[in-house]
Amino acid sequence: MTEVSRTVSIVEVGPRDGLQSEPEILSTAAKIEFIERAIGAGIRRLEVTSFVHPKRVPQMADAEDVIRGLPDRDDVIYIGLVLNRRGFDRARDVNIDEIGMAVVASDTYNRRNQGVPTQDSINAWLDIARDAKTAGIRANVMVSSAFGCPFEGEVPLRRVLEIVDSIAAGDPVELGIADSIGVAVPNQVTEMIGAIRERVPHLPIRCHFHNTRNTGLANAQAALDAGAASFDASIGGIGGCPFAPAATGNIPTDDLLYLFDRSGVQTGVSLEKIIETSIWLQGQLGRDVPAMLPKAGIFPQVIEQYREAS
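and the corresponding structure tokens:
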């Protein structure tokens, strides 16, 4: 069995993947405060926006303004999602620290999400990765819907490995694996990460899970056991995917941190401050967030609260 890593990185995706699927459109100032709160909690890599067409994702229409308003910190990496050359050019022009690209494992969903077949997105990634390196911009790539497609059904492992072989040629800073519609179960995660690590042992693996069917945290534990280096999570558990039916529910940063903290896994992130941010976010959205920790509290701290009240 693979030895469990005791230090992992949390990549906060709430400002991008979280907000892009919510019906409310936060102001630029609120988005910046959201990001600053996450940094204050100890997050050091964040997906802060996506450079996509504003008519397709109106929640991200202020991408450039968000980047320009963020604090300039040497210890924080801001990531912007790009899907094509136009998106990369916008990200480069605003001096983004890192770009992330997504290649969907199924052609049907890639066409729905990006307007082109999967191979075209692979080709775009290879070109953009080269140009990002020339421009001094970090670049990561993620295989989306690696465990299942809402339109084609099951995605064979061999299909994911073929894509991994192709995109690894772009020399990403890390390779992401996403369960974009929340269909994976732990044994699939174990098998896939094991196979990918054999294929590209030099690449750190980042995992992006959705909790659509309540398996997200179990999958995160399986990924941790299998040797994943970093995990995407969304404060409050907001978000999903606007182009996949019922793909609600990024795993909450709050709940993932509780799992890791109680397991002795170091992240450098304050669970207390993340919960405070979730409560703040509820005020911005005008409703409760899906995360459990803002409701249940941190054990054993919550026991002390009960004792004081009794």
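(Above: one complete record from the training split.) The mean pLDDT is 93.
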